[in-house]
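A.,

Following up on our hallway conversation. Structure tokens first:
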């Protein structure tokens, strides 16, 4: 069998990366797929006290374990299983859990900085960047982080001003230039999703 297809999905926090990935999978009717969230590869911080974990810049490329992610993608490309870390946003570190992931024909990896690392970028067959204006992303992030990530409004606002917004403009937005497709998530994007689905099917057909 030919190597698995690798799709990278970047975009600012709460731009709609996970939502767009789900739309692609639903439209394409794909099942033999692994979805990896780059968030699971934030560095382990269990040896740091909680007050120090709060202060880390989680929107800087150095906060992620790209060596481990690269190694894991290479293993999956060789049809080898991996033991993937699982991140705990409420504890600001990796959880005790490990997820055993079996190789599949399609590997989708999503994350704010997934197109920032040149070695990981080179593994992609298709690269996507999801676009959404800062204000809408901030509102969606605020609602999500209070509901799902155990964060207070004050903490969300402080983090957004101190790191999330400046790092987006410094490190994340510039990676748009590496994307094959830009998906606007503030307007209808059904055609962009259709084009990606068609491309996935074409590549899979050629690799049979
Ligand atoms: N087109 C959209 N319209 C309204 N809400 C959306 C849309 N896309 C995503 N959302 C919502 O915004 C939040 C962040 O979306 P998500 O896909 O999780 O973003 P990301 O994976 O980029 O962080 C979620 O609560 C999601 O339901
Ligand atoms: N302990 C952490 C780790 C990361 N974050 C934030 O998560 C954002 C990326 O996740 P998305 O699902 O929004 O793409 C990123 O902007 C980090 O600021 C965090 O708040 N706490």
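Then the amino acids I'd put at each of the 208 positions:
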């Amino acid at each position: 069998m030919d190597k698995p297809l690798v799709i990278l999905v970047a975009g600012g926090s709460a731009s709609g990366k996970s939502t767009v990935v789900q739309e692609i999978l639903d439209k394409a009717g794909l099942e033999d797929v692994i979805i990896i969230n780059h968030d699971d590869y934030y560095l382990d911080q269990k040896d740091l006290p909680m007050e120090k974990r709060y202060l880390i810049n989680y929107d800087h490329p150095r906060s992620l374990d790209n060596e481990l992610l690269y190694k894991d993608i290479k293993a999956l490309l060789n049809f080898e299983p991996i033991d993937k870390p699982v991140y705990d946003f409420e504890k600001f570190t990796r959880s005790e859990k490990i997820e055993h992931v079996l190789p599949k024909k399609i590997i989708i990896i999503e994350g704010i900085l997934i197109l920032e690392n040149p070695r990981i970028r080179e593994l992609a067959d298709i690269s996507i960047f999801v676009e959404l204006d800062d204000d809408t992303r901030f509102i969606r992030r605020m609602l999500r982080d209070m509901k799902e990530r155990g964060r207070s409004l004050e903490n969300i606002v402080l983090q957004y001003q101190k790191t999330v917004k400046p790092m987006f403009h410094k490190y994340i937005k510039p990676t748009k230039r590496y994307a094959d497709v830009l998906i606007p998530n503030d307007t209808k994007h059904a055609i962009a999703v259709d084009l990606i689905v068609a491309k996935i099917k074409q590549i899979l057909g050629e690799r049979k």
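The radius of gyration is 17 Å. Curious whether your intuition agrees with the design.

B.
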